[in-house]
Amino acid sequence: MSNQTERQSWSNRLAYIMTVAGATVGFGATWRFPYLVGQHGGGAYVALFCLAMIVIGIPMILVENVIGRRMRVNAIDAFGGQANGKKIHRAWKILGYMGLVGAFGILAYYMVLGGWVLNYIGSLLTGALDLSQPVTVETTANFYKESIQHNSWAIIGYTGLFVLVNFFILEKGIVDGIERSVKYLMPILFIFLIVMVIRNVTLPGAMEGIRFYLMPDFSKITPQLFVFVLGQVFFALSLGFGVLITLSSYLDKGENLVRTATITGIMNTVIAVLAGFMIFPSLFSFGVAPDSGPTLVFQSLPIVFSNMWGGTVFAVIFFGLLVVAALTTSLTIYEVIITSLQEKTKMSRKWAIAVTLGVIFLLGNIPSVLGDNEWKSVTIMGKSIFDAFDYFSGNVFFVLTALGTAIFVGFVLKDEAKEELGAGKTFTNIWFNYVKYIVPIIILVIFFSSI
């Protein structure tokens, strides 16, 4: 009971929603979503994404909220205690440990992406990347190769700087650190996003990009594409690695979980869709292909900015937006591991933060950077170290952990899960049976399609 009585709570509902929104926005909405839209038929992908948010996103947010708030403890012990008068077998805590391993995996490469973005901002401010005149595909490709792929120690330095920013915020705690920073960071993100959207939709020829983005090509809609979209929803909402379980463990018992889950799903969808509006109109306006994949943001968009009036300024704003989005997410993923370390080992918060960030930096971030250069010959199942962290965290650990949480709610918590949800009887029964019988099938389809 000590963890529950000493545990902080969010100051208010808005603070919690803003923090969860920050946790679920990140690179999933601002980097990954746009390039996947470009690769998979524009509007078709957008339409399926919105549908998938309803089919799997919001129900799974509620699953993790119920698990997290029930015990108000870390993401490991959240799978313990009693349910329906019986002690829950300790083997269920394996799900919590799997979530922590997945969180380690995503932070191992996620923080490096933050380092890439900081490198771009630094290069723009110093003129190393000059967008005052139109540049070519070759120019941006060469810059990416020289400043990212073949510049390991600079990227390690930028990644370390990004880690330090996280450290200084995290050491202040849940309320004074994460909540207070997100209170300022999320409005900044929205302002930057709106500025970029307004600038890009008013460009000559922007309507062609908007048409590509919003008009679905139904021939592109296939069962396989829907499975891919479902996987993106898991990535976008930070499902399966303990983030929402941890954040909801600080949630007041009187809070309406259905309302907060719905708002979370809507905000994530809106921001992801807005991210497309700040990218595709400009791509089509300047004749840049939208299907360049993961390098869309780093190689294709600088070409667009170089052809735009005030392009350098807007490029700095855009990459600043990416840093803010990455920061609001990384803080909450780190918190999953930090909270678990604190409560499982009785370690002080400052030491838990130092150990978490330090170990991930040494064993995850540095290998991820070196894996594209000095350690290029080191592969894991044919993948570079960076890609291996991405693949195994996103396609194995997160999906299996999410499957386990749905089964845990449906077959272990049972009536206790319904009571924790605290919604109307009809809605609760529909949600519970859907999570118990349908969601596991959907997750298994995602899993076997991704491996």
Automatic annotation (TrEMBL):
It is found in: Membrane. The keyword Repeat does not apply. Its main location: membrane. It comes from the Bacteria. CDD domains: SLC6sbd_Tyt1-Like (cd10336). Belongs to the sodium:neurotransmitter symporter (SNF) (TC 2.A.22) family. This is Transporter. It comes from Haemophilus sputorum.
